[in-house]
Amino acid sequence: MITDQAVILCGGRGERLRPMTDSLPKPLAPVAGRPFLVHLLGQLRESGYREAVLLTGYRGEMIHENLGDGSSIGIRLEYRHGPEEWQTARRLWDARPLLKPNFLLLYGDNYATFQPQRVEEVFRTHGCLGCLTVHPRETRANVAVNAMGRITAYDPTRRVSGLNAVEIGYALFSSKIFDFFTGADESFSAVLERLSAARQLAAFLQRDAYQSISDPLRLSAADAYFTPKKILLIDRDGTINCKPERARYLSAWKDWKFVVETLDALKRLAAAGWAFIVISNQAGVGRGMVTEEQVWEIDRRMKEALGRVGVPILGSHYCFHHWDDHCLCRKPEPGMFYAAARDFSLRLDQTWYLGDDPRDCTAAWRAGCRCGYIGPPRDLDTLPLAEKPAAMFPDATGFAEMLLRP
Fold it and tell me: Alpha-carbon distance 81 to 58, whole Å?
């Protein structure tokens, strides 16, 4: 890793969360039974970060009292406290003595799926002073990203034409960005404007939905997102049912045949409270070999058959594109994972996907999802180490036993 240090801006008052924040700093707002900041720090620990500097302001003493040195969370905490009225750039400028040559900067009210190695790759490739994690957006955007992945404009007023993404935090910076600070009490947005004007910012595009606790509605959505769920994402052909011959596609229910081990595994998991979402490529539609109506009819019959044995399928996501369409949903692209996550408020880094193809592993990795694999191990030989599955079994039996283990 380029750095093991994170810095979190958590000094704001949280006006839109009043009256809760009249007596509680916003980062300590309860989400799924824990302070929001604890979720954020836990994610950093799991991502390999060993220390975090908390830049506190409003009721910062409460944050210090609640989290202490971080030993209960497993990440070492340092604090830099400033007056409530300080703006964000002033807080970061004041923290310079505590910062390493490179550091990750987060906002204390945002949360997103985060893969540090991918952000670091963009940072290294572009050689900029910063890499911002951004989410594509057509309206209310504040960042313009070009086709090369460089940020060409940063506009906190959101009025400049050409803006196509919103910055969501999880930004990796060199400490050389302090050359762009004026030392004035100003918003960090002003610094980002100067950095973008100097072409010193790159972008890592994060297409998964991000969470925020900036207002009551978003706080409620974050609560749903962080609530643990027993939902398994699962491939179809070759995993649930026997895969058709190469270059052939299932077009009628009469040709359907369950994989016996998978069916038994799904029944065991369902009895323990699990539910399932199907994620499957169906390029036969794009190739003109089957129709969408045929795919959905098979899907309906599959759900009915599984429902009769107590296996609930919450939804299905199919990519009907031809592989030459270069869409964002066909595996190994992660688009269907993001759609399922939006539909069911899934925290993908705590969600498993089960498949039988190397593309399943790559798609899950790109989505930040845990992957179980039940295909031949030799088929994974060409996969980069980062994309290899977290668990491998001859069939779904061992995978189910792993999930059911106390």
Answer: 9
